[in-house]
Amino acid sequence: MKFLKWFFITVLGLVLALVLYVTVIFDPNDFKPQIVDLVKEQTGRNLTIGSDLSWTFFPTLGIELGQITLSNPQGFTNSSMVAVNQVVAEVALMPLLKKEVEISQLNLDGLTLKLETQTDGRTSFDGLAATADAKGATESSTQSRGTSNATLARLDIGGIAITNTKIINIDHLNNTEQLFDLKELTLGRFQLGEFAPLKYEFSATLPDFKLVSQGGGQLKVAQDLQTITINDFAVSNQVTGEGIPNGSLKADLNTSLIVALDKQTMNLVLSSFSAANIDAKGKLDIAYGSKVPNVVAKLEVGDVDLDALLPKQEGEAASQDKSATTASNAVEPDLRAMKSVNLDVGVSVKSVKVANLKTQNWVMKLQMKNGIADVKQLSADLYGGKVSATAKLDGREKVAKYQFDEHLSEVDIRALLIDLAEVDLLDGKANFNVAGKGRSLLPDNLKKNLVANGKFEIADGAIHGVNIPQMIREAKAKLGGDLSASSSTSEKKTDFTSMTGSFNVAKGVVTNPDLDMASPLIRLKGAGTANIINQALDYKLTTSVVGSLEGQGGEKRDALYGVEIPFAISGTMSEPKFALDTKALLDSKLKDETDKLKDKLFKKFGGL
Known about the structure:
Layout: H1 2-25, H2 32-43, E1 47-49, E2 54-56, E3 60-71, E4 80-92, E5 100-109, E6 112-117, H3 129-148, E7 154-157, E8 160-171, E9 176-187, E10 190-191, E11 196-205, E12 210-221, E13 227-240, E14 248-260, E15 265-275, E16 278-287, E17 294-305, H4 316-328, E18 342-354, E19 357-369, E20 372-382, E21 385-394, E22 401-412, H5 413-421, E23 426-439, H6 443-449, E24 451-464, H7 468-479, E25 493-506, E26 509-518, E27 522-531, E28 537-545, E29 564-571, E30 576-580, H8 582-605
Parallel strand pairs: 5-7, 5-8, 6-8, 17-18
Antiparallel strand pairs: 1-3, 2-3, 3-4, 4-5, 4-6, 7-10, 8-9, 9-11, 11-12, 12-13, 13-14, 14-15, 15-16, 16-17, 18-19, 19-20, 20-21, 21-22, 22-23, 23-24, 24-25, 25-26, 26-27, 27-28, 28-29, 29-30
């Protein structure tokens, strides 16, 4: 017993002597010049430590230092790349012997990182990356083996506080400046297997907008260090800038997250999301262990009004100038990054309003693999009918390719055209089938490169803006000498029971070779084109009378029965022009008078 007693007294004496030596005789500041010289040798940078290093050894092992700066390379605007006001770290000494880590405090205050990119391409990191890469190559195998089996008996952190952190990124090459300001990032009392409060306050000032974000939640790290859980993480964001819809956008979300480091998976539950009157919820599962991560997502979205997010309309001339400028500066979107992730996404949307087009009950199922996005299903309720489509987008090449197959059934075509293009031309229940493909996603190229074929059928409708039977009646009356015939009181609308045809699209022109319209009074047939680039119409048709022009109650067959009268449609989709060729009517009138004269002469001389 005496032996043990004196043994412990001896050990304690040695510890006290060591502490006395380190704290009184040994001065860690003696090593500051060596540290400065080593940094200079390895990086060519100047390191300064303004304040004295302060150590504690028992009962905590700690360090406090401050006024630290690391210089930028010569010739840079900012003399220092890194500046730190204060760093404080204290670890309880005795628990370390039992593989227990007890940190009483860990504080970092006043970190400022000033990054620059010069016009010649040099950056603040030049000279640092090579050293870091060499070190990483030396230690990579050891690190990968060591972290996989890392375990701690206990980890207890009294608190972590990172305050007043700024990152300034100045790009002289593009003449831009970015400021990131982390005002606060704090973690409360933290122990393995227990939830700890986490909160932050952050802002970013970029050339086009400013972001202010703050949030907080509960953080837990499993005892084996393999699972990280964040619960009830509530985030509030405010974005302002000229390019932001209405100048300002507020976005709030509440989410939970589980990261399994051993399985290399991430599971996120979006309990709520709200931005610009758009509400959503869903979940996201990510497997990031393979070279190409796999993402599975399901999202439910409420009412979406995209028109409210678009910039307000300008004057027509200004809009045209802006459109021309935008088109001339347009750059083909490079979608080759699609190969870097695999997606399986399901989205449902209650309603969508875009370009004044109103749709409801959207359902989309999308899969993306090896750079090809495959829309397996895209359906919605559209103006009393249904729209369904499938599509593929190939982003593997610099200029993307696409193909689609779309079907519309029982759609109110008049309401659709009015809302979509402000065109009041057709009425009725429409059925469309169209399949097409193209290359390039630039708006102008979309119109020029689209190649498509389709069929349409419109039932119980009307052509608005023209009354063809009335035009024929007026022309017939005027040819008969009644110059007072006028259609000022008649409705400019031509009813029909059916309109059918096929079409193809190439080089921005829709060609319709077989338009066939039937009504109780007339029949309209022919062919024409519609230019989707300049909206020009060019139709050459023939109309023929199949009933009494006096209406469905007329008893006599009309004198023009069966006569084919040329009929033309020109102008634009928004302002169509209709023309009837009266020469055919005149020829018919002359033929009718000739026949009557022949009958009279036959009757008069027939008995001779």
